[in-house]
Structure formats: C-alpha cells, structure tokens
Batch of 3 targets.
Target 1
Amino acid sequence: MFSPEGPRLRELAVQALSSVERGYDLLAPKFDHTPFRTPDSVLDATEAALRRAGPFGTGLDLCCGTGAGVDVLRQVCDESVTGLDFSAGMLDVARARTRPPGPPVTWARADARDLPFGRDFDLVTSFGAFGHFLPEELPGLFGQVHSVLRPGGRFVFPVVAPPRPGSYTYGLLWGFDAVMRVRNAVWRPPFVMYYRGFRFGEMWRELIWAGFTVRFWPLTEFGRRSDGSPKVRLVVAERAAG
C-alpha cells in the first residue's frame, strides 16, 4: 500500500495514537507517498469537469492537505486560490511545493467547522476529507461552506460509489472503521477517520438543508457499475444566485 518513500509502521502507529491534527503534522512530509492522498486520476477528472463548467474567479480548497486540490483550483480559477487546513505540517509541505504559473495562493490554518471568511469564493472544493467529520458535524460543516460562497457559487467534491457488501474492499473498509472505533473507545485523544461514515443519502439531505441545490456529474473516465450508476461522480452543490 505504501511506496518505499512512505511512512514506516512505527511512524503510522505514532500517528494513529495522536490527535488528528498532530497525526497529520507527523505524516505531512511523507503524505504524498501514501494511499490516503486522492489519486491523480480523480484530481485530473475533476479538473477536466470544472474546466468545462468554468472559469471561476476565486477558489477555496477545504482541508487542503499537501495542496493537490489547490493545484486543481489553480487551473480553473482566474483571480486567487486559498488552501485551508488545520495541520501546520501539511500546510508547510503545500506551501513549499506550490510554484508559478497560476493565480496567487493564500494559505490559511483554521478548522473547516469555523471558517474565517466572508462571502469570498466562487468555488469551494474538497478531496477525501469527509471521513474526518462525524455525521452530526455535517450540518455545521455544510452551513459554513454555504456562508463563504458568493451567490451562484458552487461546492464541488468527488464521491466514489460504495463497494458492494461482501467484496474485498467492503471488508477492508469495514475492518478499518471497526479498528478505529475500538481505538477511540480506549484511547484519548480521539482520531476521527472513518471510511464508511460519510453516507451518500445523509450527505445529500444535509446539503439541501444547508440551502444548496444539488446535482451530480458522472465522471465518465471511471466507467459505470453493473446497475448503470457511475463509479465516481462529482457532487455539485450550488448556492442560489439571488
């Protein structure tokens, strides 16, 4: 699962026994060599879809990590891009790897549940971060995103179709979540990271409650499942133009 440049087992154990923030500070220098980073194929497909819909003015990448999503925004935004994360270590890596050309980038260290912005953005993205939020936190999180979008602005993120029950991937993710729940029951501080906690129906409902109009764009590069549904799609949540 990890390249030779990735973290060793001991490093992962120390990270897993830390808080989420401290864990990602420790992992940051090697994060891009782990399977936790969003694959380039998903990033490229998202960029292509946003190019067809754009261009946009200002963009925010929520929970930006080492900056892969910021790179996407810099290809589709003309004015400026902001990367936000609560891990100083991840932001340090992101800042060091960002190079011209492209619009200027601002880095912000803050909690996504308490965004330090006004209605400043035309486009907000996020890649692979929602497993760090408990289901009861989604209304507040989506409300925060809604509050920083300009009228007509969009909140866009990719979602992968859930694995079928009984498949190897289903068992792997179920096992990972079970281990994390046991860990959090017996160890403090908690480390919130659940792959199966972000449910499609709950996400859709909470986006609507936050005031968004929600559409789904299939990313055809990844094909379709046997029932005809896309394997990967973009969630496109739009704030009303008025």
Target 2
Amino acid sequence: MRVDLFDFELPPERIALRPASPRDSARMLVVRPDGLGDRVVTDLPGQLRAGDMLVFNDTRVIPAQLEGRRGEARIGATLHKREGPREWRAFIRNAKRVREGDRIDFGEGVSAIAGDRASDGSMALVFEGEEPVELLLERAGRMPLPPYIAGKREADERDASDYQTMFAKEKGAVAAPTAALHFTPALMESLGAAGILHETLTLHVGAGTFLPVKAEDTDSHVMHSEWGRIEAATAERLNAARAEGGRIIPVGTTSLRLLESAADETGRLHPFEGDTAIFITPGYRFRVTDGLITNFHLPRSTLFMLVSALMGRERMQAAYAHAIGTGYRFYSYGDASLLLPRG
C-alpha cells in the first residue's frame, strides 16, 4: 500500500512532552464500529467485560543513549538490540567518523570497540571490561527519549521514572511500551474488581520503533527485529481465557505484535522465545487480538498502519481527526485510545 495513505496533519503542539499526572487521569478515546467516545483512563473497567484479558509488556527501559568521543570527534550512540553478553547493535550519530576497530570513550570508565556496520545503518558495539553492560549503562547512559520529545527538551531525572511502566521488570528495552504508562495500582485494583484479568509477556522494544517509514510503499519497508518471550504457562492461561469467551486485549502495539507472532492460524497461542519482525498493515488477518489499548501515533508510522489494520484506515483517520480537533495529546507521553473492532 502507498505510505502516503497513512499521512495526516499533526500540529507539533499535540506531541506531549510530559505524561499526565496522575497517570490514569489521561484522556482515552474509545473507538468502536458504531462511533467514538471521549473518556478518561479511569473509565476503562466500565468499557470492558468480566473475563476480558489485558496483556502487558513487562520490559524495562535501560539508559541506552550514550555520548562519547573517538579522538576529537563527538559520537552519539543509541543502543537498539542486544547481540551478545557484551555486544549491542547501535545507531550512531556522526557515524562517518567511526570505523570498525575504533575505540569510543563514553566517559565514567565506559568504552566500546566499534564492529561491523549492518545494512540498516546500525553498528556493532562491543563494550570493554568485565562489569555487566547494564552497570556500565547505569553509570554512563541516559534514558532514550523518543526523538520527537528529545528534540524539544533534554531528558532529566523525572524521565527515569516517568518512562517506566508499573510492570517494568525485564531489563532490555530502549523504548517504553508506552500504552502501559497509563496504568496505576489503583486502576489495576478496579479492573480486578470488575473481573478483568491480566497477564504479562516480554518484548524488548528497539530503537527501530522510532524510525520513520522512508519507503513510498509498505512492501518496501523493512521492520527491525526485536526479541520477545511468552512463557508456556502464560500462553495456556491466555488460551483458556479466550476459550471461555474472554477477549484478548493487548496493552500496546508491542504486546500485540508478539501475541500475533506466537499465534497459529487457528488463533491458539504457543510459547515463544526469539526475534520477531512482524509488520502489520491493512489486509492482515488478526489471529488472537480482539482489541487494543494504545497511544496516538505519528503520521506515516508503522504504528498508525497497525491500528488502521485493526480498525480500518478510514475509521482511524476519522478518529485521529477527532483527537486532534479536541486536544488529545499524542505519542509516548500522550493520551490513550481503546480500540474495539467488534464493539
């Protein structure tokens, strides 16, 4: 499909620079086949049914942005996918000044040797020393805010907590599964009291999620792969909930993509551990997803293509026009939407 079919005008001021406080006070646009509803996130228990299953991503964002030097050249690195105990693939700023075998000093006793360059422009970095890389990043790294936020302000101490979900446990993401940022212990208690279930899986979100689609046709766009895991017991509980009539509603596109990667053509989920590069566009037949909670995405993005696949492109264009016209906040720190393709 033509990428320009997923374009729309988004005023820059609609991109949120800070999350709502408290988190569950954010607005929530409910999109159903019969129309739109303006709500807030705390209304969620009343919008779902007892037996529905929410699926959260428990990945934890690491401080994956580094600033360093190779000689006199200033070098920036955003890690995006782990390749080994000490090796990460990274997108490099000022990459023309870095060659394979060069040593980059990131300060605080943290350094890495540049490796091969991949076709997507990323470069391998092998961190020196014996300390776990996670400890090195805690010392020298910064939270990797999306470029649409980082271009307007510096990351600060607030982001260290603002950019983690309440479910964050498994270290390895360089971007947050931001739909889950809206959830609080109080909201989870209300959902539980309403009979709404939840499970967690792990997908380490990579920096590729920030990259714009530069191709003119979706067939020419290559998705970056990301590592994920669904435990066998989790898959069985999800299958049981669906067999009993509950809807599977991932919280965030990351959860949705991993669920769809782990489901067979009958809609049954299987244990999963490995990489997925699934790219969902209109025409895709969803195997296990019955709805989605997600934030508002950018024009021409793979994420807007995904929600268009779930709900229909014209319906989502109309929903986003309503959201822009009525002041909803977009992107990682923005408001939420609840998408229910069958009402």
Target 3
Amino acid sequence: MIDLKNINRRRFMGLAGMTAAASMVPWKVRQALAATPLPAVKEEDAIIGFGHVGPISDEGWTYSHHQGLEAVKAAFPKAKYLEVENIPFSADCTRIYRQMVSDGANMIFSTSNYGDLIYEVSDRATDVAWFECDGRRPADNLSGYYIQHWYPTYVVGIAAGLLSKTGKLGYVASFPVPSVFSGTNAFLMGARTVNPNATLQAVVINSWFDPQGAKQAGTALADNGCDFLFGIMDEAAYLQVAEERGIWAAMWNTDIRRYGPKAYVSSIVLDWKDYYVEQVKKRLAGEWTGGEETLLPMGKGIDRDAWGERVPADVAAKADAVRDKMLKEGWSPFVGEIKDAEGTVRVPAGHRMTEDELYNWDWSIEGVSGLKV
C-alpha cells in the first residue's frame, strides 16, 4: 500500500538569521553525503531520463518540469533524452525506471515523489545520478528537491484577505499531504493579517489532475459562500468556476489566466530550468554527488505570478510589500504562537518554524477545515 502522506510530489536548514543575500540562494536541508562524485560523462554520451506523474500538456505541474527539460536540451544538445508521461503509482513505475537504466541513462529525474517504487531501482543502479522531486530519502546516488512555496502563498493569501467580501476562502486539494497543509495554512495566515475572521474550507478530490472533480469541488465551495478559490491542481477547472460565478481565484504551477482572466488573481509559479541545467552540468563534469535535499527559494524557482488584470493596485502593493520584506530582509511570518485546528499550541511563542518544519507540515491551523491525514 502506498502511503499518501508521502506522495506529496510537489514539494532544509531554517531561515532563522538568514541574510538578504542568502534569501536568494537555494536552501539545503541536507548537504551532500560523504560520497565520491560520479565520473564525468561526455555530453554526446549522456543519456538523461525524465519521468512525470501527468501529461506535459497539463499546463501545470508536469508542463513546468517539461519546460525545465527543454532548457536542459538547449544547454546540452548533444545528449540523448528519455521522457515518460503519466507514470502511475504502481509496479509500472518501477518497470519504467528500470527500463531507463537498461536504456543506458546515467542521470534520471523523477519529477514527482514515488518513494519505494523508485528506490527499488535506484538502490541497485548506483552509477546513475537520481533525483526525486519532493524526495525524502536521499542516498549517495540520489538527491531530493522541491520549492519553498509557502512564502509566495502567504503573499497571495494577503491579497485574498483583502479581496474576499465574505471572508470564506475555498481550497481544492489533491491529497492530505504536507504541500497541501503548508499551502492552506500559509494562505489563511496571510489572509488573516488583513481579515482576522477569515476561514478556509478545503475539499479533497484525491487526484492531482481531475478537471471534473476540481470543477465539482470549486462549485461546492462557491455554493457554500466561498468567494475566493485556491488550490494545488494541475489544471484550470476551478478557475473556470470562479470566472463563471464572478468570484476570485488563485492558481498553482503556471500562468493560466486565459481560462478565467476576470477571476484570476495570481498563481504560485514554478521554474525548474536553472536547477536542472546546473545539476546536469555537474554530472557531466564529474562534480555531482547525491545525498542532498534542496528547496528552491522564492525568487529562484518559485514566486507569485504577475497580478491579474482586475486586482486593485492597492491590494497588489500591500501584498508585495510583504514579499519585498521576505526577499530583502529574510523575514518569515511563520513564528509562534500557532495553534492547530483543535486549539492546541503546536508552535510555541517566539519559535520560528524551520524550513524542515514547513516542508513537513502535516496539521491544519485554526480556521482551516476539511483536511485529515
């Protein structure tokens, strides 16, 4: 049985005391293990594999990783590339990655978290450089990577709190996994800085890509009085609901405002290009070792999208003032006291949550409903 808690495929030193300059550098939960770098590979001999959870046409999560692959191809045109879409959470996943190794891949990126389904292959293919997005079990030949999405999410949450008339925010969730908990919590925390009475209702649809399910969830949230929709889906279904209902929406992954230009507020946008090019460069040069867990920070891999056409200038300015404080001063809003949905203090007063704690957040704060592990 697959542990859904560890299938958060979107994804760790603390930020406490970091400088403004350091805020623009990827943070590493774990530095490279004491391993010998894999030998150099000539570009023309390199075979690089990419495996995706969804279709590259989703205009969302998988599309963003495909764009990263395109950047790698442009940087290293002599290499050979393997790319597989729609890899299931089943034995077929293991078979697909085993086939990549058989085809001679010396570097493989899994753009989602598949856990043991990958490790069964990576633990044996020790001469291959492995990467697992949101991977949580580094090894000498495997590194994990993800993004600090909670910071731009908090910024967009401020805009939501200012734009919402009802104070009822809705969230279309994939699974009850850390990226959803940290996303809903950060979003509501941002909203509550301008509307202390704001609440957030989540609806879990048990899928990352299900336009029909996302549309039904968005409709149910709107029917329940939510006038601002947010979520973590790989398509635009609930944005279209917001457009039809005359309410607001913020998205994930990419700029898909064309599906709801009047409703669109912003998106939590992803950019893997620099990270992928850098890792391939290291592998070819014989400088790559595994064992790292890297979180790409806001401004370098993750950020908010340009504001939507109907977002008032004063709303954008108030939200961006906080974004600037994060980027320039290393400020974090995730400081206790923070209580969970049952009123129990989880983060004591004065404690600044570390990136590891934010990355592994698996409980809801006060005001969030609908999520259970």
